[in-house]
Write a structure and sequence with these properties.
The chain is built from 13 helices and 26 strands. The chain has 446 residues and is α/β, with parallel strands linked by helices. The site of uridine-diphosphate-2(N-acetylglucosaminyl) butyric acid has 27 residues, from helix 5, helix 6, helix 10 and helix 12. GO terms for molecular function: UDP-N-acetylglucosamine 1-carboxyvinyltransferase activity.
Length: 446
């Protein structure tokens, strides 16, 4: 349910222009916070954004006896796991449904306490989001898992043992599960078909600073030699390449010009190539990247999402809004999540022409081709967008609706905007800084 405070009126048609800053990655920071549980001694994490996922993990860690306090510099957290303890199940349960991070507490809690209780998980509704890989991995390390009311209870009767694991798909979460568990397990763990996203590399950097021994091969194999003890870390989180790409897409769709301070070329190379093919312009310096619409018409493209180093699925939804403004037929094949294109129906209501297909369109066949999921799209453009009423469906879909509303003629009402706070720090202020004409019906103009 959304209330009046959760609705944003967007008066479209103004190009977004100016500068915003992105801080640490939403898909790294909460995991680095969990890693602090493994150390003997405090850890310092810098460049931490103020987003809901960080607050949820902070709450969960505090429930388990970790003290979390601000450090000396803005955006710094000091996490001290000296007095880790079991949390009250009812308290943990209160976090049920709020995030997908709790599953990653399993390994660290099993090492520290010998048991763990994990509530039902939340996260965006963009497909089934199963956690079977996670539990299979934990079983291979020697954990037992029992379903209890409101969640899963795990036990490690003995010290967890390193093992050989091959993931059925290079899952980001399952790879992190293995890393956070293997570093203190007895012996060597060999993980093949691992995910190798930049956020995973950064988590590996965190763990190495703590004393872990982790080697990455070029063929998606990660080898972890377990150690007996880890210390704390001092780390500056890599910046949020997904948020940066969202603002880049906003610049393109609104014919604007945005300097994204903190955006990094290295983690965005695939996005930048695609942005250039669509006709977007960018300029990279040491502090960030400027993105803009250079005038003229945009080009239709064929796009396939994939695990890193492919085109990241989280970049897809915001860019699709820009593709509604490109001349010709664009093809989008979503191969990571089976239902990440449902958000396009609201774009069609605004005047876009986007047709969804169950077949794998474009390049290669994916896991979803035979399974009846609407996971390919043909976007035909350019189409004028008109303001409309819409409800935020998920984090990236929600930001995409903001972009569409900003690019549209007239006024839109975007309901459920609070969900965007899960992963976009201070987005209302950023919109204001970029000259967006938006207001809360309750009176707060931004
Ligand atoms: N999968 C399974 N079983 C599992 C785990 C995953 O079948 O046990 C499948 C999923 O259903 C999906 C695929 O594997 O089809 C990939 O899922 P993955 O595990 O890689 O995703 P995740 O770890 O749950 C993280 C990010 C997502 C991002 C994906 C892919 C976090 C908190 N979330 O999710 O971010 O899309 O990796 O890169 O790190 C977002 O930021 O909006 C977001 C959804």
């Amino acid at each position: 349910m959304t209330g009046p405070d959760d609705v944003l009126l967007v008066h479209g048609g103004t190009p977004l222009e100016g500068e915003i800053r992105v801080r640490g990655a939403k898909n790294l920071v909460p995991k680095a916070m969990v890693a602090a549980l493994l150390g003997h001694g405090p850890s310092r994490l810098r460049n931490v954004p103020d987003i809901r996922d960080v607050r949820v993990v902070r709450g969960l860690l505090q429930l388990h006896g970790v003290t979390v306090r601000p450090g000396d510099e803005p955006g710094e957290l000091v996490l001290d796991p000296t007095y880790v303890e079991s949390a009250n199940v009812a308290d943990i349960d209160a976090h049920a449904g709020s995030s997908r991070i709790p599953i990653l507490l399993c390994g660290p809690l099993l090492h520290r306490l010998g048991h763990a209780f994990i509530p039902g998980l939340g996260g965006c509704d963009i497909g089934g989001r199963p956690i079977d890989f996670h539990f299979e991995v934990l079983r291979q390390f020697g954990a037992t898992i029992e379903k209890r009311e409101g969640g899963q209870y795990l036990e490690a009767p003995q010290r967890l043992r390193g093992c050989k694991i091959r993931l059925p798909y290079p899952s980001v979460g399952a790879t992190e599960q293995v890393l956070l568990t293997a570093v203190l397990a007895e012996g060597v763990t060999e993980l093949s078909n691992a995910a190798v996203e930049p956020e995973i590399e950064d988590l590996i950097c965190v763990l190495q600073k703590m004393g872990a021994i982790i080697a990455m091969d070029t063929d998606r194999t990660i080898r972890i030699t377990g150690v007996d003890k880890l210390g704390g870390y001092n780390h500056r989180a890599l910046s949020d390449r997904l948020e940066a790409a969202s603002w880049a897409s906003a610049a393109l769709a609104t014919k604007g010009n945005i300097y994204v301070r903190g955006a990094q070329q290295r983690s965005m190379m695939t996005f930048l190539n695609t942005y250039r093919k669509v006709g977007g312009a960018f300029e990279i310096d040491d502090e960030g990247i400027r993105f803009w619409h250079p005038g003229g018409s945009l080009n239709a493209i064929a796009l396939e999402t994939d695990v890193h180093p492919g085109f990241q699925t989280d970049w897809q939804q915001p860019l699709v809004v820009a593709l509604t403004q490109a001349a010709g037929l664009s093809i989008v094949h979503e191969t990571v999540y089976e239902s990440r294109l449902g958000f396009t129906s609201a774009l069609n209501q605004m005047g876009a022409h986007i047709q969804l297909y169950r077949e794998c369109l474009g390049g290669s066949a994916c896991r979803f081709g035979q399974r009846n999921f609407l996971h390919s799209a043909v976007v035909s453009g350019p189409t004028k967008l008109q303001g409309s009423d819409m409800v935020v469906p998920d984090l990236r879909g929600g930001f995409s609706y903001l972009i569409a509303a900003l690019a549209a003629e007239g006024t839109s009402r975007v309901h459920g905007i609070d969900l965007i706070n899960r992963g976009y720090e201070n987005f209302m202020q950023k919109l204001k800084d970029l000259g967006a004409n938006v207001e809360m019906p309750g009176g707060t103009a931004a």
